[in-house]
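[job 0412] stage=complex_fold ligand=alpha-L-rhamnopyranose status=START
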Amino acid sequence: MGLKLKLSAAAMFVAAVTFAQDPYEGLRESWLKKAEEAKPALNYTEAAPVATVRTVQDAGSFQGWRFEEEGTPEALYGKNFKDVGSVTLDFGKHLVGYFQFHTKTLSNCMDAPVRFKLTFAEMPAELNTPFDPWSKDRLGRAWMQDETITLTRLDEWVRIPRRIAFRYVKIEMLGWPGAGYSFAIDGVRFTAQSTAGEVKTSLEQDCPDLIRRINDVGVETLRECMQTVYEDGPKRDQRLWIGDMYLEALANKHSFKNFALTKRCLYLFAALAREDGVLFADIIEDPVPHPQYGTYITPYALLWNVALLDYLDDTGDRETAEDLFPVAKVQIAEGLSFVGEDGLFDVAKKPSWLFIDHRAGLDVSASMQGVMVFALQKTYELARKLGRENEVHEYPALIKKMTRAARKYLYDKKSGLVLSGPGKQVSIMSQSWLSIASVLSPAEGAKAIRTALDHEGCVMPGTPYAMHYLLYAMLRCGMETEARRTMEDYWGGMVKKGADTFWEAYDPEDDMYSPYGFTPLNSACHAWSCTPVWFIHEYPGIFQK
Ligand code: RAM
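[job 0412] stage=complex_fold status=DONE, emitting structure tokens
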């Protein structure tokens, strides 16, 4: 679809949501246009498989499966595929883009169609776990990348229409095509795409090997997720979420420095916000950019403000920050509408999906208090940088009030722990968020985090997203050695278990952990796990020595 057509269709959405009280009235179309103008071009690279592999079930490997090299792709290309029947190819690295294969008549002529099943996978276990029967309480079955295709012609390239995120592909011949002819699969190729471009940073020469590998895997993760928006995962969900964007933009600052993509995403969220100005949690680009209607995540909307401040700091692009500052104010006002007279964020009012981590059972009240205070602080800083403090003069008093309330109702001086919700739950996220928000002093935060880590029954993070905030909190609390060890253990743990790109969900104690009830649904290349890139470069003295 041409840019013009796309723009006008998206503008129709904008027109449809515009009504009398729209705080962004008259601005949305120009914001959408700025988003389109900032869209970076995709770079394409050609890739080919490096080996054919055989499956090995191995309890010592991640999720119980690994591949072993078997032969070369060239050896496959000469064989009658009716004898091969099934083959798995390894491309040697994670790729995002479009897959093609070529067939060649070997004897006689095609006298009946031939049908194949192609299964693409990011992980060995994903390729070796049967997908069916599919339970209806899971996410959509078609996220799984298996495709059936029937050829009625040979001797040409066939392209699989859907965009693929994978490292491995299994090609199986389905049924028997008849005895009248033979053929080979004599070529396989992949066009990979990303908008990331070249890495523009480097590590210190004597940077330890494990940190270097963590950085490299983080960079690859980010590269794969940088498409025409910051996607969360190129396999699933293939869309722009605020929480993922915030962390991708951090890592981008210290790698590709592709700030136009950040600008595009900030404007997209603003242009497509709800009628009252509240940001949707995520945006889907095709066929025209539109929100995932009905999906709001208050902490994400608040973190959008932080991403805007970071963008201003990274680029000095004042025009964008000025344009979008009113949007930041709306997110704060929306968040504050759930803060009670007592100065506490009231999760019982259920403003939205209060996503802090995927870990089941996590009580988010203390974390929400932290996110709200952090967003107030950062939005005030943004206002100051724009000389617009007068518009938000009430923020400092609110920060004080919410800090006092948090210390009074959520912080238990005796144990040194933050306790969240009616069940007084101890979680890593509660300690981390109240440390990030400076509700706890660095010494109190360090004690809270250490005590929680040793506390039996403490709710541990389930995703690298949550781990990011733990690491950030540790650094704010002066826990430098522990921060370094946490990165080496957690992200380094994934590297040691064979990660080419960092995973959406990871529990070092449970390789089968999945927030979706089915591990193959986990995304194995997930944006929010790329932040070691930011930490390693932002704090070279701690991570690169
Ligand atoms: C899932 C994905 C995504 C995240 C949301 C909240 O769909 O993991 O990255 O931002 O949850």
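Residues 232, 237, 241, 243-244, 355, 504, 528 surround alpha-L-rhamnopyranose (CB under 6 Å).
[job 0412] exit 0
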